[in-house]
Specification:
- The complex is a heterodimer of chains A (498) and B (470).
- Chain A is mainly alpha-helical and 498 residues long.
- Chain A has two domains: 201 residues, no CATH class; 232 residues, no CATH class.
- Helices cover 76% and strands 3% of the residues of chain A.
- Chain A contains 19 helices and two strands.
- Chain A has a two-stranded antiparallel sheet.
- In chain A, helix 11 packs antiparallel against helix 14 and helix 16 runs parallel beside helix 18.
- By secondary structure, chain B is an all-alpha fold.
- Chain B contains 19 helices and four strands.
- Chain B has one domain.
- The chains are: A mainly alpha (498), B mainly alpha (470).
- Chains A and B meet through helix 5, helix 6 and helix 7 of A and helix 16 and helix 17 of B.
Chain lengths: 498, 470
């Protein structure tokens, strides 16, 4: 057996958390040792995952780096493995986590050690979600992520942290328990929870509809889709900056990943059947939440609503079942991971200086924060999908995919693009341009070294993947083709039966 | 006479109890020595059980049975009693209930449970049950100068006596209609549909449901849990539950195995009702002991869900559940026993506020235990529920599974509310700082077990899978 590289990147952060636990010193911002240990661990993890990407064979759709050990005797194996889709999410996770930890230097003032431990443990669970090839293992990691996130919102959050933390926890838990029922049912139908085996044997069509709905309830909450999105703005607003970043950049992607890997992969017939539902909900999400975003006076809330709208594009793209749509939605998720992380960090930069998230307390920042204004502009343009940023590639491909399937849906989705431009440019104008009226703002300084690194790296990647998206599409191409082929053969089978 | 070797644990226990009683009467201030020796007795008992003959035999005219099932329950009972004695000692001395009767009564109830779980006959079963119950009545009111404790004792006694009466009436009906008190004979005689047996079964079920505090016979639980001294409550919430669930399983799968269709729906109802009540009623509680009472009602609901399936997988999952439940509850009560401020033990939930600042390690432990009680993966509590629902869904009882899982979300609310109080709220004055390995040790052990369970989650299943009652 080869070196268990997937388990290493999954459990390395856990070991890092142990070392952070053992570091001596004060439990506040002065404890540099804890930060160094965490940054080191997550960076090592990032480089291992880059190595993973380079040694990844993108010519085959089979699962690679498969690891398998007996776990629950007799029926469940601890199985890890990745394909072209999951590797991007792993890279995203290992890329965003070090940035989060660096942002702790400025954003987290109390109980730093515990915060870093929570983030590191959360990284383990997130990578585990994207690696696992067994439904029970997947569920385990999927749910376990609630614990650290609940604590991150609840302990380090803003004034309404308790309400938000509870809402986040209970919403997600309620969505997920039905998935557990479905997973156990799948076990009794097919005799296994191993995803690769289920993909081969398939699930009888008569079961697919209810099982699909059970999985849907979980992923729709996580995604989040309208109308179960209400936990997200609350959670984002109250979470500390690194928490918002992780939430927007990675946790939301678990829903999209789940749709791709499980809903579409395991239940193709039900997926086809429920496509109109998904289209309707996605369109509502895109238009409604964009309109809501226009009305916000809290910057974090605005970005949170824009996240929901962007996730609407993702679900729309996945359920077009064509190459452009699915590739587009994966790239959209990846780029949203970068851009939303960057936007929350940018807001965090302002919040750390003035302790206000309100749009009206800013204005004219371009006169005093030129570097910041430039970086913020790149991310704002990325959000609205300007060609040359990674945001464009995803949205464009999704819209092409949608046009192929349903003209009306595509038109409605395009309105969302316009609205996105409206709310983000309006935000940018109010915050950056205009006169510097608030006297408090006179004293604040431009981005410091650590903030510069974080935002600079994100800016670079946003532009890189905007100009050169082949890096991403090459990786996912074969896996996406395979997914679509599987889907089409399954659908074809049912037509023959009819 | 050869049969007597199967009864060595019980005989050893009774001889020790009477010797301790005699020592207690003749020796002044003998609490310390008797407490220590009773722990030693339980420890030797464990060694005896481990080395004893584990042949599957029925003995004493088939009124006792020696099998894996009773052995497993006995080991679980002894281990948890040992830990409960370990964690409660400081509390017992602090509230001045350090009378030598206390450990002796605990041992007596353990003896009763031993007899109960190895019984194969209605009469022997009833003897064991009553020995256990009588000791528990006295234990509930052991703090006799405390109004609440005596009230708890009386309440428990009156209601429990009533349920024992019902149970006995059920036994007599069963005897009347089958002509035997032997479990095997009852099973053979009840193959043909017989209303008398069903009536008897229902009465026995009511009595048993009362002992394990399943809804709708749960009313005594919150009052008794709250009123009794915490040391006794921790014992109540763990040890009699193991014995109760064990005998519950035994009744359903042995004498009543032929009338599964009759009791299955009753059990499903009790299970759903307990899960819902345990989840909903606990939300408004402010007293942590009362909250634990409702939480234990909810957990019993899940355990019964496993029994109600009626298959071997079902009761095995219940045994796994109850084992994990024991680990969590001992840990939780060990934490409750640390809530001491200004020389007095406090029980209100908001006394815990900001615990994480003053006692970071204890609150980390309690947090792990609470998340596990809520059934959040990757902690052991999740696997306990997972196995139960595996068995439930195997038999296509989807309603039970969905209601059960939705109630876990509701119950998660009050568990995370405690975590909220500990972690999100502003700190109060710290609790009295004392490092007592007898309390902190079990908390640490419980947390380690709960966290590391996911590395090898089938460990209990492998032990339990060799157990069958048939």
């Amino acid at each position: 057996m080869n070196f268990p590289i997937l388990s290493s990147i999954t459990f390395l952060p856990l070991i890092g958390a142990l070392f952070v636990f053992l570091t001596r010193g004060e439990n506040d911002e002065k404890n540099k040792g804890a930060i160094y240990v965490s940054v080191f661990t997550t960076l090592v993890n990032f480089f291992i995952s880059l190595f993973l990407w380079f040694s990844f064979d993108n010519k085959t759709s089979n699962f690679q780096f498969v690891e398998e050990i007996n776990w629950i005797s007799g029926f469940i194996k601890f199985k890890f493995g990745i394909d072209g889709i999951s590797i991007l999410f792993i890279i995203l996770t290992t890329f965003i986590t070090p940035i989060c930890i660096i942002s702790c230097i400025n954003s987290v003032k109390t109980r730093l050690k515990e915060f870093l431990i929570a983030i590191l443990v959360l990284e383990t669970f997130m990578i585990g979600v994207f690696c696992s090839l067994d439904l029970v293992i997947f569920y385990l990691f999927f749910e376990a992520g609630l614990i650290p996130m609940f604590l991150i919102i609840g302990i380090w959050g803003g004034p309404r942290k308790v309400y938000s933390a509870f809402k986040f926890f209970l919403f997600t838990l309620l969505g997920s328990v039905l998935m557990l029922v479905a997973i156990i049912t799948i076990y009794w139908i097919t005799g296994t929870t191993d995803v690769t085996k289920i993909l081969q044997t398939g699930i009888p069509p008569e079961f697919q509809y209810l099982l699909w709905l059970a999985f849907f309830s979980s992923f729709a909450v996580k995604m989040p889709m309208w109308p179960v999105h209400t936990w997200l703005p609350d959670a984002h607003v109250e979470a500390p900056t690194p928490g918002s970043v992780i939430l927007a950049a990675i946790l939301l992607k678990m829903g999209g990943y789940g749709f791709l890997r499980f809903s579409v992969g395991l239940f193709p017939i039900a997926s086809e059947y429920f496509t109109p539902l998904i289209f309707a909900l996605s369109i509502i999400a895109i238009i409604y939440t964009s309109l809501v975003a226009l009305m916000q006076d809290d910057m974090k809330k605005l970005i949170a609503y824009s996240s929901i709208a962007h996730m609407g594009f993702v679900t729309l793209g996945i359920f077009t079942f064509n190459k452009q749509g699915i590739e587009g939605s994966i790239i959209q998720m990846f780029s949203h991971g970068l851009i939303s992380a960057a936007l929350f960090l940018s807001i965090g930069v302002l919040y750390d200086r003035t302790h206000s998230r309100m749009i009206k307390s800013y204005g004219g920042l371009v006169h005093i924060l030129p570097k910041y204004s430039f970086l913020f502009m790149v991310f704002a343009l990325g959000t609205l999908g300007l060609p040359g940023t990674s945001g464009f590639v995803g949205e464009f491909l999704v819209l092409i995919g949608a046009f192929k399937v349903n003209f009306l849906v595509a038109i409605l989705a395009s309105i969302g693009v316009i609205l996105a431009a409206a709310y983000i440019l309006w935000l940018y104008k109010k915050v950056i341009f205009g006169k510097l009226e608030n006297v408090q703002l006179q004293k604040i300084k431009d981005v410091n070294f650590s903030e510069g690194i974080m935002l600079g790296v994100l800016c670079f990647t946003v532009l890189l993947f905007g100009f050169y998206p082949e890096v991403l599409t090459e990786t996912i191409k074969v896996s996406v083709d395979n997914l679509i082929n599987n889907y089409k053969t399954e659908i074809a089978k049912t037509i023959i039966f009819k | 006479m050869t049969d007597i070797k199967f009864l060595i644990p019980e005989i050893f226990l009774s001889i020790s109890i009477f010797s301790l009683l005699i020592i207690g009467v003749f020796l002044k201030n003998s609490f310390e020595i008797i407490y220590k020796s009773s722990m030693f007795v339980i420890f030797s008992l464990l060694l005896i059980i481990f080395t004893s003959n584990n042949d599957i035999v029925k003995f004493f005219n088939a009124s006792f049975s020696n099998d894996n099932f009773s052995l497993y329950s006995k080991i679980l009972i002894s281990v948890s009693t040992l830990f409960i004695l370990l964690i409660t000692k400081k509390y017992i001395i602090d509230i001045k209930t350090n009378k030598f009767e206390y450990p002796v009564l605990i041992l007596l109830s353990v003896l009763g449970m031993f007899i109960m779980v190895s019984s194969n006959d209605l009469i022997v079963f009833y003897l064991g049950l009553e020995l256990q119950s009588l000791s528990l009545y006295v234990l509930a009111s052991i703090d006799r100068d405390n109004l609440r404790s005596t009230e708890a004792g009386i309440k428990y006694f009156v209601l429990s006596a009533l349920s024992s009466g019902l149970l006995l009436y059920g036994c007599s009906l069963i005897y009347g209609f089958t002509g035997s008190t032997n479990f095997e004979q009852i099973a053979i005689a009840s193959t043909d549909f017989n209303l008398g047996i069903i009536f008897g079964m229902v009465f026995i079920l009511v009595g048993l449901a009362f002992k394990i505090s399943a809804v709708p016979f749960h009313m005594w639980t919150p009052d008794v849990y709250q009123g009794a001294p915490t040391s006794v409550t921790s014992f109540f919430s763990v040890v009699p539950k193991i014995a109760g669930i064990a005998i519950f399983i035994k009744f359903m799968y042995l004498p009543f195995r032929e009338i599964l269709g009759e009791w299955q729906y009753i059990l499903v109802f009790m299970s759903i009702a307990s899960m819902i009540l345990g989840a909903v009623a606990a939300i408004g509680q402010t007293n942590i002991k009362r909250l634990m009472a409702y939480s234990s009602i909810g957990h019993i609901g899940y355990a019964i869900a496993g029994v109600s399936v009626g298959t071997e997988n079902g009761f095995q999952s219940t045994l796994v559940y109850i084992s994990i439940y024991v680990v969590m509850n001992i840990g939780a009560f060990a934490c409750i026993l640390l809530m001491k401020r200004g020389g007095k033990y406090v029980e209100e939930l908001n006394e815990l506020s900001g615990l994480s600042k003053n006692h970071p390690l204890v609150s980390l432990g309690l947090m792990i235990i609470l998340f596990s009680l809520a059934g959040i993966p990757p902690l052991a509590g999740f696997f306990a529920k997972f196995y139960i629902f595996m068995a439930v869904i195997e038999n296509e009882m989807y309603t039970l599974a969905i209601i059960g899982l939705v109630t876990t979300v509701v119950s998660a609310f009050y568990y995370i509310r405690i975590i909220k109080i500990m972690y999100f709220d502003e700190p109060k004055k710290p609790f009295e700082k004392f490092t007592d390995y007898r309390i902190h040790g079990p908390i640490a052990l419980s947390c380690i077990l709960l966290v590391s369970f996911f590395l090898y989650p089938s460990i209990l299943n492998e032990i339990v899978s060799s157990i069958s009652i048939f």
